[in-house]
Amino acid sequence: MATAPGALVPAATCAAAQGPVHVSEPTGYDAILLAGFGGPEGQDDVIPFLRNVTAGRGIPDERLEDVAHHYRHFGGVSPINAQNRTLRAALVAELERRELDLPVYWGNRNWDPYLNDALREAHANGHTKLLAIATSAYSSYSSCRQYREDLADALEDSGLTEALQVDKVRQFFDHPGFVTPFVEGVRAGLAELRSRGVSNVEVLFATHSIPSVDAQRSGPAELSLGDGGAYAAEHAAVAEVVMSEVGATDTPWQLVYQSRSGPPSQPWLEPDINDAIAALPAAGRDAVLIVPLGFLSDHMEVLWDLDTEALETAEEHHLEAVRVPTPGSHPAFVAGLVDLVVERLEGARAADRPALTSLGPWPDICRPGCCENVRRGFRPAVAGLAP
Fold first, then answer.
1. What CATH fold (topology level) applies to the domain 31-172+330-352?
2. Which of 51, 32, 6 shows the shortest CA–CA distance to 98?
3. CA nearest 385: which of 222, 211, 215?
4. What is the per-residue pLDDT across 243-294, written as a single tens digit (0 to 9) for each?
5. CA pair distance 273, 255, nearest whole angstrom
6. Count of CB atoms within 10 A of residue 226's CB?
7. CATH 3.40.50.1400 spans which residues of the chain?
8. What is the C-alpha to C-alpha distance for residues 223 and 248, in angstroms, rounded to an integer?
9. Which of these, 254, 259, 240, lies nearest to 201 by C-alpha position?
10. 49 close to 38: Cβ distance less than 8 angstroms
11. What is the dotted CATH code of the domain comprising 176-323?
C-alpha cells in the first residue's frame, strides 16, 4: 500500500504518518467514516453474510446453518444495521450541535453498505481526509486490527489508495462516554434486582470470546498483560471502574465470555457465561446481573446469546436475572465519540485525553505487531505501524 514519502503508516495523514503514539498535531479531516461489522437484512442474506464473515476458513454451509438459525429466529434480520443507522444519525446531530462541518459516511466489513462503497461515496463528494470510528471498543485482532485490514483492502479494491487518507480514532474502552452507560445500567439493574427481594447478586460482565492465541497477542507486543493480553485486561479494568463508580465494590463480579465459534480442540477464553451462571446457586447466589460490556449495541450476539440462552440458563437455575442495556445511541456515548474526533482535529495532548483506567488513553497509532493473527499472518492495515 502506498504512503506519503517517508511515511511509516499506510494511507495516513501527515500528522499520523510517522506513527506517534498520540497525534499532537491538529489535522483537518473533512469527513468521518463509521466502520461497522454488518449483518443480514432478510432470510436470503443470512448464509451469504456468514460466508463473508468466515471467508478463508473453509467452513461449509451446513456448519454455517448452526449459526444461521440465530438470525432465522429473528426473521433473518440482524438489528445491527438499523442500530448503526441510528448511531450515524445521532453522530450527525451531535456534530451539528457543536458546529463541526463533517459528514458521516457508513460502511460495513461484511455486508451492504460495504466499506468500499462508503469510500467511493466520500471520494465522489470531494473528501480526501477521513477519520474512521470502528464500532468496537477493545483491542484484539477481530475488534481492531481486522477493521484496519479491511479498511486497507477497501482502499485497494476501490482504487483510492492514492486519493484518500484514512486515520482512525483510538480504542475507546475506557473513555467516559463508553463507560457511563454501563455505570448507569449496573446501578439501575442492581436496584431492580433488590426490588424483587433478592440479596445475593453476582454481576457477570460479558464479552465475546476469542481464541486464546489471539488474546495473548492482543495489544502492543511489548505489553505484558497476562494470558488474556490487552483484550482481557481492558475488560477487567473497565469492570472494576464500573463497580467502583456504582459503589458496589462489595458485590461479587466476574468477567465471562460468550459466542464461542471455534473447534473444541482450539482453546478460547473462558469461562462461558452459561457455565458461570450454572455455578452461581452453589456459591449462594440468588440473582445475576448480566452486563454486555464488550458490545456497543443490542445486535444478534446480545439478543441470542444473552437475552435468549443466558436468561434461559438463569431461569433453569432459579435465578432472578436482569440484562443491562448496551450504549447504543446513549447521549454520553455519542458525545464521547465526537470527543474522540475533536481530539484528532485539535491534536490534543495525551495528558488532556480522558481515560478511566491506567491502560489509557490508548494509542492513536497501533504499534508494530499489535493484535497479530497467527493463522493469517500480518496483512496490510491502515492506522498502524507495520507489520
1. Rossmann fold (3.40.50)
2. 32
3. 222
4. 999 999 999 999 999 999 877 889 999 999 999 999 999 999 999 999 999 9
5. 9
6. 12
7. 31-172+330-352, 176-323
8. 30
9. 254
10. yes
11. 3.40.50.1400
